[in-house]
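Aim 2 progress update. The chain analyzed this quarter is reproduced below.
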Amino acid sequence: MADNGSHTLPARSVGRTLPTAGESVAAPPFLLPALHFFAALGWLTVAALLVVALAPALAQGRIFDPPVFVLVHALTLGVVTTAIFGTLQQFVPSGLGVPLRSIRLGFVGFWLLQTGIVLLILGFWWWRGVLQMLGWLCILAAVGAVSRNVLRVRRRSVHGKLVGLFISVAHSALGAGMFVALARIGETIGWWHVDRLFLIAAHAMLGTIGFGTLSAIGVGSRMLPTFLMGPGDDRVWLHWQLGLTSAALLLFSVGAIITNGLVMRFGGWLLLVAAIPTLGLLVRWFRRRRRTLDGALWHVAASAMALAVSTGIGLCLLVGDPWRFARWSALLVALLMGWLAALIVGVMAKILPHLSYINLARTMPGFSAIGTPNGLLREDWQRWSAFVMAIGCLTLVAALAFEHSAIARGAAILWAIGVLIAVANVVRMFVLGRRAPLSRMEPMPSGE
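Predicted structure tokens:
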């Protein structure tokens, strides 16, 4: 039967269905995940404006310019980390049956994280080590607060121990990445001397792959099969993905710390091997689906394509010249903008309308008039956003890889337009939700 405007595909063999929750636990207040999601969308808008301005510099391989550091951290911390923290504090109690230790701690973690991001970005923009250190301290405190809220899922969840293991390893990678960042900040202040190039490479991989990708795959192993209506048993694939990725990141980071290029290169090759089960899991989830893709899931499909592209760029760096900084720019763009940002936009387009409807329908006349959360976002806007962001990002990656500044600027503008469409769709949802005339509008089909 068709569901919420999406057509159900014929049934196929999908394996054993895994349980998705433990005990019954009350969800946190709507404001906690909502603040994280709105902040992530705000930082995504900032990143869209910055990438347009900085695309020529990226194409020239100027990845160590202070404004480029601002862009990268607006994406990694502002978009990726903020969205993941918000998702975890909603998903752990609601999806895995483990209550948060403290709702207040969740809000404290949010404000510490946002304060830290602002201080860190200002420190990069003006290149002030003291501001960078203050931002680092706030972010470290935020990570501690969120970790205390969510990391006990590994011990207490009835059916989510493997997901809890992913979350624990991802947070460990985030912590390692933060201490690598401390080493670099300490050099900026003048406390010591380190090899910046090696440490920055390790910092980037720990953030994008260690924290971002492991969190996405761990939590996504429950969420995405649900969204796609294609449950199954992926435990073997998940164990291989986690084991290979963890070992690869450990080798890569140790090589960076001891300034050993050979160890780093071996870790890089192992990261490429780890990409096989990562991409394999995404393919399995989409092949098992029992519904056609809506706009939000097209974002997820585009993100998987960008992850495959980033694997190809990583291979080029390993077999070619690793000092081609423009290719490192292309790799970071593919991982941050193509893979993680697109995935977050898609997942938020599934989660936010449902949470908003459940919690606000009584006070928002537009929501109650629609009568279903699946009509709150315009489906056509969501599809256009997915298409424009994907084309813009892939074109930008190609322009950076071949060091073409003019094409890079045009592609960045295209990606930014796709981002603004997605953000405008969410803003429209809340603006029109407060207006009674929305009751005369036809619901826009949007998937579950």
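The CA atoms of residues 317 and 323 lie 8 Å apart. The two ends are 13 Å apart (CA to CA). These observations will guide the mutagenesis experiments scheduled for the next reporting period.
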